[in-house]
């Protein structure tokens, strides 16, 4: 036999083998589909049996509990519907099998269904007539359902075993098909490996670029296989990393800006602390002079009185000087005590209902005595319809008198210091303004005049620089605010105090 014949014979045998294997596969596939359909119908009947059992149990419970007639009728209809579905399913299964054995099994199933219908009707009648316990009927029904369920389970097992045998037969007969395709598979595998190696090298190069920091790198192509999905995931990861890096750069910039801002604030606070410390040093360097001067004067006046015991007029004059100096010394000590209390603990207030108009009138009267030696008039103008407030009378009067005294000291002779009271319900505040026509305060010093121990022009200063600091603490303790602006006109200073109207409503409550 020549080579061409051998080749033809081999081709014929291979062709016949392939045709036979294909026929076997088709037959086996048809058999498998039929078995699967039978198994599906068997499972459906098992589900129907479960529904039958549940529906009958619910119906019997409704009858036994003497439920509403509508509920009983609904339950009965549900039982009848499910039994009809069961009977229809048995008929379809028998038609599909088309064998004498299947017809016998269908007859048995229909007989069970008919018996269950009879037992349901008998159970309802027995319960109504009380002739026999309901559990007897329910037990027989359960037995019939269990028998039917067991038959269906046996069919499931038989079908499963048949499917397994068919699969084994198909597996044995199709061994030749993979052998015939082995050569082609080898060639395709070689081509596939070459393509995969090329794409894997591209993925490795892209991963190296992204790992090196080039987050703008993107893989090209739109393949939908695993490697294509991997490339898409790499692109998404790179995009997320790029966004995260951008956010981190923004956060870093904001953090650096905040650090710079906090550093500037700390430097400003340090400068303020240094200024306060400088003021304290200056205060302690001058406090001996401030306290020693009145003490020396007191001692001098007392020695003069002792040297001239018979000079009654001189002694009276010395006593008046002693009283005035003692008052100055007492005021200095009171300022120091008030400052110490405000710095060591919260300022304690004795709140009571007061009239700001009356309080400012008394302050103006005291201010007139302060301004008279300087040739300065002190007046009060009330523009508020009502001025009820709740606060510490003594401390508020001390604060306002400090403002008036400070205005008198800086006001020129034959001028007027004016105190005004206004109410602003829309803004919810009272406005108290103390206005003088003095030289004014430079804008650079307006925030510092309320600092402890701060003193302005050395040629005009008096006291220890505590009055305005204490006044601000008193106003703040009442929930108010104090600030310095230019007075209306060419010269002068306006010290504006704002107090909340809410305190006034509490005073009326």
TrEMBL record:
* PANTHER family given in the database record: HISTIDINE KINASE 1, TWO-COMPONENT HISTIDINE KINASE
Q: Which organism is it from?
A: Salinisphaera orenii YIM 95161
Origin, by domain of life? Bacteria
Concerning Pfam families, the annotation shows: HAMP, HATPase_c, HisKA
- Give me the segments passing through the membrane: 170-193
Q: Where in the cell is it found?
A: Membrane
Kindly indicate whether the keyword Transferase belongs to this entry: yes
Q: What keywords sit in the KW lines?
A: Kinase, Membrane, Phosphoprotein, Transferase, Transmembrane, Transmembrane helix, Two-component regulatory system
CDD domains with a match to the protein in the record: HATPase (cd00075), HisKA (cd00082)
Protein name per UniProt: histidine kinase
Major localization listed first in the record, in broad terms: membrane
Q: Which GO terms describe its molecular function?
A: phosphorelay sensor kinase activity
Give start and end of each HAMP domain. Answer: 194-246
EC number(s) reported in the record: 2.7.13.3
